[in-house]
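Hey, quick one: can you model this chain's 3D structure?
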Amino acid sequence: MTKTIIFLVLVALASTFYISRKQMSDQKKDVWATYVNKKTERDGAILAAGRDGSPIILDWSIRNVSDSDFYEKQSQMIETSVEAFTKVEMDFLKAHTDEALQDEHFKTLKPFFADGKQNVDWDAATQKMRDRIRAIYETKNEALSSDFVFIFVILKDQETNKQLGSAQFFIMPDYPDGDVRVVSIAVKPEHQRKGLGKLLMDSVINIIPETKRIFLSTRITNEGAISAYKKWGFTEDPHPSVGHFMFPDHWIHLEKKVGGLRSAL
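Sure thing. Here's the predicted structure for all 265 residues.
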């Protein structure tokens, strides 16, 4: 397993302009996101224990961009997510440099390769990527709609209240009943191999018992994460939505069907 487990998801904000039956189908799907968005309990905590018996608390919140504390909740992810996200992206850049540099996400790193890959200052390039990812978490995204549902989870040591990991999940209005997408899961390197990543993943089922399927996409170079996911029961998604991914062969798409307790529709 790599030092950092992170499950990355680049969410597509696709538009649909079909009529008749397609519109009716979309209206039905929209009920799922609306249901979660209007849940009475929008904050809570789950008490658990790591594999070593250490007491853990998972603080969770359900939010949309219209909530006054949305960006405050998002910023709480920075402590654990930025380092994890940075490592995954840099690993991919090193393994698939030519393809990565064609991606807008890596655009600011192109100057580091002016004298060839062998002369790259990797420490400086990594810091540049770290700054970019931090900015994503800190910048308000005007493209977000209040119909989009976010679930934020912060995993902490019960005794010290120190953050050990975090997770973020996402539901779009056009998702089928019970579908939840993983945006990111991160555990600090020194606290890995304690079962905390699985606690974070399973938290969404406790928060939203109606969840039927959890799915994600991550870089093919994120081997530690992929291995962990498969141990947790994830399999390759036979029908992934990959239209928004540049170089789709460099991504792996996974899903886990969990059989929600009841339908939200």
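One thing worth noting: The chain is about 30% helix and 20% strand.
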